[in-house]
Amino acid sequence: MKLIRTSSSEWREHLVFLGALMRNPRNVGAIAPSSALLARHVARHVTPGSRVVELGPGTGVVTRELLVRKGESGTLLAVDTDRTFVDRIRRAWPEVDCVCASAETLPLLAAERGWAEVDHIVCGLPFAVLPAATTTLIVDGVEKLLRSGGTFTTFQYAHTFRLPPAASFRRQMSAHLCCLPTSQLVVRNVPPAIVLTWHRRVSPGGASNRDQVLWATNSGPGPAGGTRRMHAGLPRVRG
Ligand SMILES: C[S@@+](CC[C@H](N)C(=O)[O-])C[C@H]1O[C@@H](n2cnc3c(N)ncnc32)[C@H](O)[C@@H]1O
Q1: What is the residue with the minimal CA distance to atom 13 of ligand 1?
Q2: How are beta strands 193-199 and 182-186 bridged, if at all?
Q3: CB pairs under 8 A, 24+ apart, for 206-215?
Q4: CA 89–ligand 1 middle distance (angstroms)
Q5: Whose CA is nearest to atom 4 of ligand 1?
Q6: Pocket mutation for ligand 1, best pick of 4, 37, 81, 154 (most atoms within 8 Å of C-beta)
Q7: Is the separation of the CB atoms in 234 and 185 below 8 Å?
Q8: In tens digits, what is the pLDDT along the chain, a chain of 239 residues?
Q9: CA 135 to chain CA centroid, nearest Å
């Protein structure tokens, strides 16, 4: 199994990533960019013509996949706090609307573009290490902007999956989107990661449905801190 790719452009990508990690370890929250396989899994719900937001694109491994999937008729807004990453993405893909800002400002960024909603939000943010207040603001913004029937997809590293901030993020997202995530373990990544997707649906029950999800996420054991869809067993192994 080839875990680390070795072409010179990929080494440069790793070096850029390491530089950002050394400048701001808490923001980057990873030792290397995602593998191509993980990027494909994270991007797989995006369809041609979609309006897509990517939070935390880093060096652009997932961005590359999103561009292919959304096609020429789709739109991609990428948001990262690291100026080096933003400049790199702007240089590589001038067609991407890439802004240097915190994901906390997502509702404002959408309003500036006249967007009431988006089809898909794809996220590389390290919720296991982000401050709780930041996570709460980001989850609120996703709830405001994601259309019903849309998806929110992110990944968490297997070794951080059970950390309280990571589990708290999952509980909040499930409660806000009134649904539980599907999950998939991707082993061919350094480190192995679990891809999580929330498929937002219209909730006729409103608050009572949210209560039901809160109950489900707070009770019982399981890798997602108790989500029912994830309780059936550990995520399926891929790669
Ligand atoms: C784990 S890296 C993921 C990079 C890339 N998506 C990948 O899979 O290789 C996390 C990224 O999130 C960015 N980030 C961290 N906090 C952020 C925030 N509040 N708003 C936007 N981006 C943030 C970091 O600068 C970094 O690019």
Answers
A1: 56
A2: antiparallel
A3: 209/178, 210/175, 210/176, 210/178, 213/174, 213/175, 213/178, 213/179, 213/180, 214/171, 214/174, 214/175
A4: 13
A5: 58
A6: 81
A7: yes
A8: 344 445 777 778 877 777 787 788 777 777 789 999 999 999 999 999 999 999 999 999 999 999 999 999 999 999 999 999 999 999 999 999 999 999 999 999 999 999 999 999 999 999 999 999 999 999 999 999 999 999 999 999 999 999 999 999 999 999 999 999 999 999 999 999 999 999 998 655 544 444 445 545 554 333 333 333 553 334 544 44
A9: 12
* Domain assignments of the chain as residue spans, ordered by start: 39-124, 125-239
Helix (H, G, I), strand (E, B) or coil at 94: coil
The Cα 7–Cα 223 span in angstroms is 35
Q: What angle do CA 222, 227, 228 make, to 5 degrees?
A: 100
Ligand 1 close to Cβ of residue 56 (< 6 A): yes
What is the fold of 39-124?
Answer: Rossmann fold (3.40.50)
Specify whether the CB–CB gap between 63 and 95 falls below 8 A: no
Q: Cis ω on the peptide bond leading into residue 191 (within 30° of 0)?
A: yes
The pTM of the full predicted model, rounded to 2 decimals, is 0.85
